[in-house]
């Protein structure tokens, strides 16, 4: 495992815990931290025993307070066209491992968008989600305008983006922004429990299911149904499918092998 300056990494029970560790700046995502997250995602993808990546913020105040505003202040128009934060978050969405955001405290701007790029969001009671970019004269540019409206609907997304309002964990769960809502104390345990449930599944099926949902969501339903069918055809050809169905018939637990 690499040594990171702004991240803490721990691998435990098939889970890659990625902790954003810059609490003195509320885990604001500067260029160096983004670069390290990129490397960490590559690292997690290569770890064969890892099925789930849990992203969390160090300290209880903040998941991530967004892009580093000091760096943002100096950025020129064409610098917004590089893959940057949006590219990294697309990579996280397309990652073959399941990604879970465990959100305690502030998840603002690019921090909220990071959580939106994850497959599952678990919000603690003290979570504060918001896209306050318009206060800075910019717009959410790391997938926020697109992912938020796809997750909670266009009306609610426009309200959050245009007013910059901040919602707590309970509200986030109520409107579907967060998948689960829990106490701060239970947050890590809840993330662990979700990861444990996912980890019982075969890695190929996990990857194909993610692919079918994410890729199918953005296109017409007929083509998306074919994505589902073709993904299923791949699954049907795996040893894991033979094992999963045989295990059911033989009344035993499946042991998946990722092939
Ligand atoms: C740089 C930040 C920061 C940020 C906090 N800090 N957020 N530095 N970028 N996004 C720093 C502060 O400057 C301060 O540093 C220290 O962290 C503690 O912050 P405080 O404001 O004193 O803490 P608190 O009162 O607890 O308030 C926390 C907060 C507030 C509500 C999160 O800091 C805040 O509103 N931050 C900005 C949130 C935001 O607007 N995010 C969107 C960014 S734009 P010092 O040195 O003074 O101790 C974005 C665009 C993404 O994300 C898309 C781009 C493509």
Q: What do you see in this structure?
A:
By secondary structure, this protein is an alpha/beta fold. It folds into 2 domains: 193 residues, 2-enoyl-CoA Hydratase, Chain A, domain 1 (Alpha-Beta Complex); 47 residues, Lyase 2-enoyl-coa Hydratase, Chain  A, domain 2, CATH 1.10.12. The protein is built from 11 helices and 10 strands. The longest helix has 16 residues. The protein starts with 6 loop residues before the first strand and ends in a 10-residue tail after the last helix. The structure holds hexanoyl-coenzyme A. InterPro entries: ClpP/crotonase-like_dom_sf (IPR029045), Enoyl-CoA_hyd/isom_CS (IPR018376), Enoyl-CoA_hydra/iso (IPR001753), Enoyl-CoA_hydra_C (IPR014748).
């Amino acid at each position: 495992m690499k040594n990171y300056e702004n991240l803490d990494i721990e691998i435990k029970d098939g889970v890659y815990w990625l902790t954003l560790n810059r609490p003195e700046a509320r885990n604001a995502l500067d260029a160096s931290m983004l670069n390290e997250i990129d490397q960490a995602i590559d690292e997690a993808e290569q770890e064969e025993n890892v099925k789930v990546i849990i992203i969390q913020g160090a300290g209880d105040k903040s998941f991530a307070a967004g892009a580093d505003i000091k760096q943002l202040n100096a950025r020129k128009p064409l610098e917004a066209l590089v893959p940057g934060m949006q590219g990294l978050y697309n990579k996280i969405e397309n990652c073959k491992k399941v990604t879970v955001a465990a959100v305690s405290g502030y998840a603002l701007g690019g921090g909220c968008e990071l959580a939106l790029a994850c497959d599952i969001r678990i919000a603690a009671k003290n979570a504060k989600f918001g896209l306050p970019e318009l206060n800075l004269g910019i717009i959410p540019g790391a997938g926020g305008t697109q992912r938020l409206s796809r997750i909670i609907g266009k009306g609610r997304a426009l309200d959050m983006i245009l007013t910059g309002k901040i919602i707590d964990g309970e509200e986030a769960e109520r409107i579907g922004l967060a998948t689960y809502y829990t106490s701060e104390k239970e947050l890590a345990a809840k993330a662990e429990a979700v990861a444990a449930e996912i980890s019982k599944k075969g890695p190929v099926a996990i990857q194909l299911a993610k692919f079918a949902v994410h890729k199918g969501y953005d296109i017409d339903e007929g083509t998306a149904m074919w994505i589902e069918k073709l993904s299923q055809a791949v699954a049907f050809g795996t040893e894991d499918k033979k094992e999963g169905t045989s295990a059911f018939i033989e009344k035993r637990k499946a042991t998946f092998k990722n092939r």
